[in-house]
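Project standup — Tuesday

K.O.: blocked on the structure for the chain from last sprint. Re-posting the sequence here as requested.
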Amino acid sequence: MLDINLVRENPDLVREALTKRNMDPAVVDLLLKLDEERRAALLEVEVLKAERNRVSKEIGQSKDKAEREAKITAMRAVGDQIAVLDETVKQVETQLNDTISGVPNLPSDLTPLGKDESENVVLRQHGEIPVFDFEPKPHWDLGPELGIINFDQGVKITGSRFYVLSGAGARLQRALIAYMLDLHIKQGYTEKYTPFMVKAETLYAAGQLPKFENNLYHDIEEDYWMVPTAEVPLTGLHMNDFVAEADLPLRYTAYTPCFRREKMSAGRDVRGIKRGHQFDKVEMYIFAHPDESQKELEKMLADAEETVKLLGLPYRILQLCTGDLGFNAQVTYDIEVWSAGCQEWLEVSSVSNVGDFQARRANIKYRPEEKGKAQLVHTLNGSGLGMPRTLIAILENNQQADGSVIVPEVLRPWMGGVEVINPTINGK
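H.V.: unblocked you, prediction finished:
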């Protein structure tokens, strides 16, 4: 959430930043109007309450019964005015909070200007695009032929955009999760196992509510929400906490299944497992000192990059422009891997510095070692990596002419030593 003081003191800066995001800056005028109404009502309430306190003392000191009665009657009217104004303040504060909660974070000066994803900047590329002496198959053909992906069973037991992984396919998915968690632990992150359902307060703290309510799965009876990413419960770990400055940075990693109501356009990504309502992801998350958050972002990007590099996947690093920046982010890097069967780049990681945007919503502060006012921490998040796109790239890039798939060497310890996936070992 933006700081209302920033909007009040630097409205032109906020307007300019929102314009860079292709957002109507008129919302700034609405915020200023609501803020002025709230402050005016609060001031009026404070004046009336001060008057009531003053007169109450006079009533206690007065020996004239008629005078006391008159003042008591007058204060009842003042009390009614205070009650009306308190309700006005409450309503205006709710409207102000709802409005500012829908305003995205302001882009960092490091974020390039651009209208949409077509203007994202490719920073570098690593690895050679694989060349085959046969026609590489997309995973939606390769997987079923190997017997490791079953689309019909997913549709039968749930519906469209669901599938079943079998045998070596299921084990490969599990191997990827274990590999990433163990690697992130070596990189300095503490593993967390968090709930896969959270309360609305936690989603609000992470910036998912109210903006993305229509994309979330919600159990109305218990008022629990399925997590769209481990970023949400990891943010919630320190809601309303004070963290010692000496303990920063706090670096966490966690695996969760993720649940999202994907609103796919007709004809877009309709084949295969690239987009679905349920998928797995390993997340990296950092609570950082504001002075160190950019350095932590570079570390997180390097850690995600190492995760891809060790898998032997060709990849490229993009910096997102202002027009493609996520709601919470100030600056974001994406990692995309090449997938030989789909013949396209697939995003497998998005690494972002959120600044104090989430911490303000979640009320997460640190206590300076030297005496001073408590400050908001900065938060950062990154995928390390997301499935099923990582799985897709491994299958398609490592396929052989006979239809088998070579397992990346770093995953073999979690595959029981299996080096090649083919129909004879897939566990059908």
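K.O.: great, moving the ticket to review. Residues 65-101 form the longest helix (37 residues). Residues 7 and 123 are 33 Å apart (CA to CA).
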